[in-house]
Amino acid sequence: MTVVVAALIERDGKLLIAQRRAEERHGLQWEFPGGKAEPGEGAREALKRELEEELGIQAEIGEEIERYQYQYPGCEPIELMFFRVDAYQGEPANRVFERIVWERPARLPDYDFLEGDVEFVRRLASGEAGVKY
């Protein structure tokens, strides 16, 4: 099963979210920065690598917030893992996305998130995910 890792990066009570490029699969939908773990790569190691590639930051990966399986139509199931980023070096820069935005958790449901993230985003925004920002 493919492991997909995502980061909850907080600053001033806001979380960093990213919009996929228009030409990509699920184009212009929103997600948390991250990506697929490579074969033999641990989840935290994969997220650290992805954040360097996507945002140019060196992140300290913290606690796992949530994990669940999701299956997009016509695709193999994936395991989604969300981690808190405790600290990072460098200023997040948009290297691969259409846009990146710092947004208050309560406003996240206003964005067109990837289908696999929608329920988590709803619970995060309402405080049900056990994470407070």
Structural account:
The model has no long low-confidence stretch (mean pLDDT 95). The chain has 133 residues and is an alpha+beta fold. It has a domain at 1-61 and 99-104: Alpha-Beta Complex (Nucleoside Triphosphate Pyrophosphohydrolase), CATH 3.90.79.10. The strands form 2 sheets. It has a 4-stranded mixed β-sheet, with helices on one face. It has 2 helices and 8 strands. The protein is globular. Helices cover 17% and strands 38% of the residues.
Topology order in helix (H) and strand (E) letters: EEEEEHEEEH
By CATH, the architecture of the domain at 1-61 and 99-104 is named Alpha-Beta Complex
- Report the CATH topology name of the domain at 1-61 and 99-104: Nucleoside Triphosphate Pyrophosphohydrolase
Q: Determine the N-to-C terminus distance.
A: 31 Å
- CATH superfamily placement of the domain at 1-61 and 99-104: Nucleoside Triphosphate Pyrophosphohydrolase
What is the CATH domain class of the domain at 1-61 and 99-104? Answer: Alpha Beta
Q: Kindly estimate the percentage of residues that lie in beta strands according to DSSP.
A: 35-45%
Q: Can you count the beta strands?
A: 8
Mean pLDDT: 95
Principal-axis shape equals: globular
Strands of the biggest beta sheet: in what spatial order?
A: 5-1-7-6
* Low-pLDDT segments: none
The main sheet comes to: 4 strands, mixed
- The radius of gyration computed from the alpha-carbon positions, rounded to a whole number of angstroms, is 14 Å
Oligomer: single chain
Structural class: alpha+beta
Instruction: Determine the fraction of residues in helical runs and give it as a percent range.
Output: 10-25%
Number of helices: 2
